[in-house]
Amino acid sequence: MAYLLSDIASLVDGKIVGDPTLLIHGIASIECAKKGELTFVGSPSYHKKAIETQASVILSVKKIAGVQKTFLLVPNPYYAFARVLSYFHPPQQRVHGVNSRAVVGQHVLLGEGVSIGPCAIVEDGVQIGNRVWLSSGVFVGRGSVIGDDTQIYPNVSIYDGVKIGKRVIIHSGSVIGSDGFGFIRHESAEDAPPKHFKIPQVGGVIIEDDVELGANVTVDRATLGNTVIGEGTKVDNQVQIGHNVTIGPHTLLVAQVGISGSVTIGHHVTLAGQVGVVDHVQIGNNVIVGARSVVTKNIENNQKVIGFPPLPYNKGLAVLSSLEHLPEMRKKIKQLEGSKKVK
Amino acid sequence: MAYLLSDIASLVDGKIVGDPTLLIHGIASIECAKKGELTFVGSPSYHKKAIETQASVILSVKKIAGVQKTFLLVPNPYYAFARVLSYFHPPQQRVHGVNSRAVVGQHVLLGEGVSIGPCAIVEDGVQIGNRVWLSSGVFVGRGSVIGDDTQIYPNVSIYDGVKIGKRVIIHSGSVIGSDGFGFIRHESAEDAPPKHFKIPQVGGVIIEDDVELGANVTVDRATLGNTVIGEGTKVDNQVQIGHNVTIGPHTLLVAQVGISGSVTIGHHVTLAGQVGVVDHVQIGNNVIVGARSVVTKNIENNQKVIGFPPLPYNKGLAVLSSLEHLPEMRKKIKQLEGSKKVK
Amino acid sequence: MAYLLSDIASLVDGKIVGDPTLLIHGIASIECAKKGELTFVGSPSYHKKAIETQASVILSVKKIAGVQKTFLLVPNPYYAFARVLSYFHPPQQRVHGVNSRAVVGQHVLLGEGVSIGPCAIVEDGVQIGNRVWLSSGVFVGRGSVIGDDTQIYPNVSIYDGVKIGKRVIIHSGSVIGSDGFGFIRHESAEDAPPKHFKIPQVGGVIIEDDVELGANVTVDRATLGNTVIGEGTKVDNQVQIGHNVTIGPHTLLVAQVGISGSVTIGHHVTLAGQVGVVDHVQIGNNVIVGARSVVTKNIENNQKVIGFPPLPYNKGLAVLSSLEHLPEMRKKIKQLEGSKKVK
């Protein structure tokens, strides 16, 4: 597999500085690239590596002084790199059709070109769009709907009545539509201890178009109404999304984030790894929350915060870097008090 | 589906203030409720919404001034609401019987009215109580026991020799009885690096009656003896419970909590989201641990704590709200020291 | 099942002080052991319990004063205990062969003595070593390789092209080879909001010999190159390992640890529970990171650290124990400032 540099340039709308007839055999990071391969430089800090790389072509914003290579100039080299990578690695061909070991219920609507793997279970009344791929061991509960071109990896569990859009990707082990954590403590009989009565979770889940959910993600169904994940939002592994949460479009949730019930999150938000959000909080649009923060209160649009509770980013970083001085600060305060008393 | 208000009042032992012949068509939150629907007001902060709601009937402790609606008065409106919700949404009817694509081993005891879905695996010597529901892709290892009316959602894995009580609910992707994390570092051959020798995990897991486990929960088996989850305890998604942990009855573990080996937790405890508990710690009864705390030491009965290490709740909150002043405190100490030296 | 003490002594290279013809019926903790059973004392703090135990034989470094029992003296009692436990609980016998309800693709290489459970899926071109056990519902994607004597528990998902070594153990619900969380934000059409373009994740995963992965672990495949888990490394439940991470041999990752992309971790490292590591960080050999830390920067060999950011262990502990004084420190600083101004 090799492509003409001129074809790759057309793909990414790039300008070649050098030989357009070069044959590109592969793509690699700047450290690993070999002769005949293409790499990219996204920031000036890589200029030294650009001098040393074995790559034949470098995707870059402009020519780099001192580098005798062919350049492919584009405004966003990393994006162009990703597009070329997609070009070299087209989506895997699936075996179409319903495997004889799959189990498909009654009144199921199947689109064209659907692939359903062995031991996948599709219950009654499910609607599956065109070219959907359900891999082995996937479970889709009654009445759920899955849009065109959606891909669901092995051993994903989708409960009843879940609505999934088009071009969605869900990785293995994820669970969509499990009951929200809703219990009401009540006194039962006079001498018996208080118990937790289960609040029925009778709402749904809506996953909009172009969402990707990582591996072992959990998304609870709503008590009433819907838990919603907006269009184009990307969710990393082991994220927990509670009941009645609403997440806007094009948001990023990094690994091990936990979102409590009834939280609202805007569009183009980023929650970094292991962030927690307490229940009923509202997070605005274009917000960035730093790693390991606990969001305890509402956050306005366009804020960048970090901490527990969250602080403006620079202030939050100053707190983190001050922490190491705490024991010595305590000692100094004692000394100051002592010198005051002595006088 | 509609019910007479008088029938609903009987169900929850409530007193109608208004028309008992009203037909109730549904249940909804106070913001979404429409004519013919019932909602609830659990706290005075909702009184303004009670004036605006379209609901026909309000569950409440007492009449709310200025609201011209029918009231259904009960001591615990949220509990009553949950009970009415259950009444409107009775448990789904399952298809009884063992699906032809399920795999059931030898010497398996099956109760009456059992439902086993396609691609569920029940190994040799398992005992399944009456009306148990094992959904698709569930695995139950050799010799495990499952009590009456227990419901296990798709793709749950239950290892060998696990004992599960009655009316237990386990959501998808959860794993019960995996090996505890037990290794002993030892020097092997003279020139070889130290290695970790696996300590066999030969104990069991006991899940008592009326427990609910969320999605993608993990419960490790004991090294020797048993890991125990007490009656009526409710566990949210992605909680990790280590080997030889003992959890008392009616306790709540919120999402992404992690409990290390040999921890003991009392009854009616709440561990809020993302709490961690270090190994061998003992937590008393009626304890509440705030979100994201790390429990590093034993906690007495009836304490409410938060922090890492945990502090009494108000003190812990004061620490959290003091954190933002840390950089400015450091500066002030320097100024104070400076003014002292100058003199 | 009972063994002569002299046989057990040979197994662990121990020295008997007492009767070598004793029959040992079982193994138990020092509190639970009964007559005829063996237990161990690993530290002097257990000497009081050693006096009270019902055990007939105690594994110990030396005789314990005041204890009238038979001793089995070894340099590392806990290690010896684990070995005796293994002796009493030999690995379960598996039913060999490919179950008729398993699904095995084309061009699959199967070693000798392989066990494949019902509803396990082995796709085309997979290579399975000798005596490998794939339990029910396991999925192995195209072209993956699994070494001799590896054991994979129910409902594990292994994506295409993953390489797993010999004697590896993977617990239920784990996912190996899911896509790394790689997206590049780009402006699409003029009036459309920015979107996240998926960077194809076309690298692999290599799990070396003698690794154990707990339940519901996630290991992402590399963007390019490989995500690598070194020989003998042990990973607890619900750990997340990002794309292009490299972990050295004989390292321990405790439950709910999260490791971001492109992190490098050395050999014989321990990351305690719920630790997070930010992307591209390098952690040296023999490093210990305390519970709940966030590793925000490189860590040299042989360091023991704790905190966010990580501090030398004693300093980090001093910070944690100083936190509770923060509100009172703030008050004192105000008082000191006040007294200064008054003068």
Characterise the protein shown here.
3 copies of one chain form a homotrimer. The model of chain A has no long low-confidence stretch (mean pLDDT 95). In chain A, the strands form 6 sheets. A 12-stranded mixed β-sheet of chain A has the order 8-11-14-17-20-25-28-31-34-37-39-40, covered by helices on one side. Chain A is built from 5 helices and 40 strands. Chain A folds into 2 domains: 86 residues, MurE/MurF, N-terminal domain (Udp-n-acetylmuramoylalanyl-d-glutamate--2,6- Diaminopimelate Ligase, Chain: A, domain 1, 3-Layer(aba) Sandwich); 222 residues, 3 Solenoid (UDP N-Acetylglucosamine Acyltransferase, domain 1). Chain A is an alpha/beta fold and 343 residues long. Chains A and B meet through β22, β23, α4 and α5 of A and α3 and α5 of B.
Question: What labels describe this entry?
Answer:
Udp-n-acetylmuramoylalanyl-d-glutamate--2,6- Diaminopimelate Ligase, Chain: A, domain 1; homotrimer; 2 domains; 343 residues; alpha/beta; 12-stranded mixed sheet; UDP N-Acetylglucosamine Acyltransferase, domain 1
